[in-house]
Amino acid sequence: MRILLSDQQVQLERGRQTVYSASLIEIETPPGLAIGNISVPWRPDTDTLTVHKLLIHRGAEVIDVLKAGQTFTVVRREQNLEQAMLDGVLTANIQPEGLQVGDVLELAMSVSHADPVVKGHVEQLAAAWNPLPITRAHASIRWPSDIPVHLRSNGSLPRVVTRKEGGYTVAEISMSDVVPAVLPKGAPARFRIGRLLEASDFTSWADLAKLFAPLFAQAAQLPADGALKTESDRIRALPDAKARAQAALTLVQDRIRYVALAMGAGGLVPADAATTWARRYGDCKAKTALLLGLLHVAGIEAEPVLVGSGFGDGLDQRLPMIALFDHVLVRAHIGGRVFWLDGTRTGDTDLDRIRPPAFGWGLPVLPEQAALVRIMPPPLTAPSVATTIQIDARNGLTVPAPFTVDTVMTGDEAIGLNASLANLTGAAKDQALREYWHGQYDFVEVKSAAASFDRASGEARLSMTGSAKLDWSSGWYETDGTGVGYKADFAREAGPDRDAPWALPFPYYNRVQESIRLPSGFRSVFDSAAAAVDETVGGIEYHRHGGVKDGTFTIEKTERSLVPEMTNAEAAAAQPRLRALAEKTVYLRRPDDYVMTDAELAVALKESPTTAVALLDRGNALFHRERYDDAIADYSKAAALAPHTYWPLADRGLAYARKGDLAAAERDFAAAEQIEPRNPFTANRRGWIAMQNNRPKEAVTAYTRAIELTPDDTAALYARAAAYRKLADNDAALADVGKIKAINPTDIQAYMLRANILRDMGRTDDTLAEADAIAKTFPTDTYALAAAAAIRIAADRPAEAMALYDRAIAIKPEAYLYVNRAMARPDSDIAGRRADLDAALALDATGDAVKYKADLELKAGDPKAALAAVDKAVAAHPDDDNILLVRSLTRMRAGQQTAGESDWAILRAKATTPFQLNNLCWETATAGVALARALEACDAGLAKLPNDVAIRDSRAFTLLRMGRIDDAIADYDRVLAMDPRETSSLWGRAIAWSKKGDRAKSDADAAAAIKIDPRVETRYAAFGMTR
């Protein structure tokens, strides 16, 4: 359709205003025929509607629709009943018959409005030519010259021309070929009014307020007796002014339902308090009048304030007009503070939690000197929406993980949520909540959803439990709801107010916290520094921090608006940074060396992988469980599927090496290098094999090649440093540690390794300086402080170490810190050790805490306490084999041989890998029980790995404890031939030589051991083994 003419002629008289409107609309296409559905609303109590003509122009033919016999149908629709609004508006409707494409529809009508409440005042809005093109537009306003009408033009309207016609003044404005107004994108509301001509005879805002002041004063009068008097007396009797105001507000909000009454005088006149109380319903005016009456009787100063929900912003720049207001609330003065009370709301149970509403401006209804007041809330000081996401991925990255979300809302957000859910119950409510959560997290299978509202705290809570298979397909998991910034586009089309400010969501403050419990052995490569954000951009304050600690990834993001708008220049300056922040999505990277969990492997073994990647993943899981033949089978299938990829061959070569088939391993490594000569992984694997077979020189060569290919590979640098230490080349080892620290200055392990090397070199002062550097560089990192303490312990500075442990525990009490502090105490401090170990067990009844607690109590002569501790730990963690082993050994040491051996038998049946067998052998031998069983476990481990240094050292210790001195020395000789710096074997052999009476050899071995580890003697003394 095309609007050919829009003509509006306004006649203003005291107490009456008449608007004549005429239009010509050409119907150009079939969709344009919809314009033929003509509906004209009016209020019969104040308006008179006259339709002057309705014509159809079809070429030279003119069809008079009304003369042809068609009539308007008049209906009362009450279109806003669902919002509890009664306006009494009638609608005249007609659909001209025979309307065709190409016709021009002409309509002329007038509405005359007279409302005695306004006492002769007049006001009008005209020339709102904004959304559609118009060929010819005209508007005029005519009024008696003795009425002081003021005019104001908005937008791109041409200059208003005024003239005198007898005793009248006429203002006129015309435009041709009007194009739709270009309103500035994203601007505050005051810049989006567009073309509009305002007319009003109110001389000031005080003049307007004076009109309403007596209306509210009259309506707020309370009756002298009756039920409402009883309620007001009850409220007045409360001892505190704030409590009285709260009671009055609660009565109005909770006991008077909201119904908007815009019929008759109700459009502008508030119902009196007694009527509202009798009805038990009322609109904003009625509720405000009742609330004012209750507050005044309670001795609280308060007045009504008119506000506009749509025109509040920029109200101070407009002409005073009644039409700009559509709501009223109460401003109460209590104890020097202002409280904004809205009787139409619900759930305001604490005045201190009520935020000033963001209406922009309001007009206090005062009999004299009223002026607009600013009504804007300050920035929020606490999140109004706080979401906590918890994911338990300990069973693995590829199996469904328990997924829970809790969202807590406060303030208007909480009240709004409660109102929206109030009418939903049972299955309908559950379905709505499930649909909400699915919309938020569509990858989660929702199992339960709940919502609650606490009136006392004003908090609304949404919660969900479910299960989700996390998407790690790209090797990364995108964290949920932790993005900051946005893809800002602050460009605007040419037009008026192109440089207007940009509106911001205000006030808002959101927080998202997400935690993911990771699988055991998940080696984090999360870059906390890269994810961190602490800055204010474009009026929004952003904070984001994350990290991995104790097997859990945690991240928190907050966003808070500080201002309601920013200038166009500020927006342009902020745009690049906002976009850059939006690109900084936080991902958690799956480690390259990640190995399937038992749960994942169980699923994978039931499947038949068809891709090389899936076969490699499963093969790696089998490899790490020492199921080398099964791993080799999967690697071989992967190699067949991906013959041009070196990974399957490199992994298979390592599996062959673990089996002892070094020839097969080398064939695979050579084949991998044929595919990719510059791959660093075969070099790393050659280095590992060389170290396992005590060939450190070959290891250095291999790791050097790997580092040449990937200079930033800290794992290869660590490995080469270890090889250099085997060769007693500490300077080279220190150089590698220096490179590690240069790559990652926050790597605490590098500091610890450097300290250990310096200690080996006898550089005690430098060793202690390294401990100081750790504590200074990471002053609030408990792990770093514990590392610094461990260095002090190794340097035989226990008092200084204790101070560091104390400092770490003061920052964050953690089980391992208490355990380490307990072991740093002298043996004589039994009470201190007991207190620390009990504190550790209270936090985490696993790990070394149980072992050391049982040992402490046994040595203190209290086997019952030792047994009680291990029984409690096993009950709490029945699947933890390490705890079961502690109980087994504790039982045997406490004289419960049968029960202890029963536990031990369970563990022996489970022990199938060399590592498990060695652990069983060593722990049993150091406990000094079941030595024959310990020896059998060591022998079983050596059968799988004949040249393993650790297992051979455990076997030697077991033989030493059994009194088989020569056999022990023979095993120690084999260990030291493979690794001359193996401290345990040096000290064990020193004990063996001592028992044979060869003091010289014993002293030589002891000196060599102490040089490497000054605390080795203390450690073996704890086993009851001295020389």
From TrEMBL:
Q: Where are the TPR repeats?
A: 612-645, 680-713, 949-982
Q: Which intervals hold domain DUF3857?
A: 14-180
**Repeat among keywords:** yes
Which UniProt keyword terms apply here?
A: Repeat, TPR repeat
Pfam families of this UniProt entry? Answer: DUF3857, TPR_16, TPR_2
Is Metal-binding tagged as a keyword?
Answer: no
Return the InterPro entries for the record: DUF3857 (IPR024618), Papain-like_cys_pep_sf (IPR038765), TPR-like_helical_dom_sf (IPR011990), TPR_2 (IPR013105), TPR_rpt (IPR019734), Ycf3 (IPR050498)
Origin: domain of life? Bacteria
| PANTHER family (alphabetical) | TETRATRICOPEPTIDE REPEAT PROTEIN 6, UDP-N-ACETYLGLUCOSAMINE--PEPTIDE N-ACETYLGLUCOSAMINYLTRANSFERASE SPINDLY-RELATED
Q: What is this protein called?
A: Tetratricopeptide (TPR) repeat protein
Source species, please?
Answer: Sphingomonas melonis
